[in-house]
Design brief:
alpha+beta, Nucleoside Triphosphate Pyrophosphohydrolase, nine-stranded mixed β-sheet, 2 helices, 17% helix, hydrolase activity
């Protein structure tokens, strides 16, 4: 799928591994805790799924677990590769999307975010970050729902 994100960058979304020549070093994690979607409240952008960039020597799965913990206090119990997308920015970058389940949410000191926000449904009118509103995210969420892993 090809689309233009809300920053005006051309993007390509794939549900097949290694679909792009640009190595993924960014992660996004769509997870649930006790039947609710786990979001984080970014101090400037608003509500969004946790994610970020892998550090040197860190695998994408390790980065996903670390980012979820740092942004929400969420402890990942299970993590599955789901999709990836390529953003044709300067320089271009690829982001890997994981799905997961959270076993606990620890109270931690947060730097970048205001912490975990649990919601019953993603269809509600919320103060979502622009990252949650583009066509690629809509397609990812539709596929997550079709996967049947979770009911929304």
């Amino acid at each position: 799928m090809e689309y233009t994100d809300l920053n005006g960058c051309e993007c390509r979304l794939s549900f097949e591994r290694d679909a792009f020549q640009v190595e993924s070093r960014h992660v996004l994690v769509i997870a649930k805790f006790n039947g609710k979607w786990l979001l984080t409240e970014h101090r400037e952008r608003g509500l969004e799924f946790p994610g970020g960039k892998a550090e040197a020597g860190e695998s994408l799965a390790e980065a996903a677990k670390r980012e979820v913990y740092e942004e929400t206090g969420g402890v990942i119990e299970s993590l599955d590769w789901f999709a990836e997308y390529l953003v044709h920015s300067e320089p271009p970058f690829s982001k890997t999307v994981f799905t997961g389940t959270i076993s606990a949410i620890d109270e931690i000191d947060l730097l970048e975010t205001k912490g975990a926000v649990l919601v019953e449904s993603l269809d509600e009118d919320r103060a979502f970050s622009f990252l949650m509103k583009d066509e690629g995210m809509k397609e990812i969420m539709e596929r997550v729902k079709q996967d049947g892993k979770w009911e929304d």
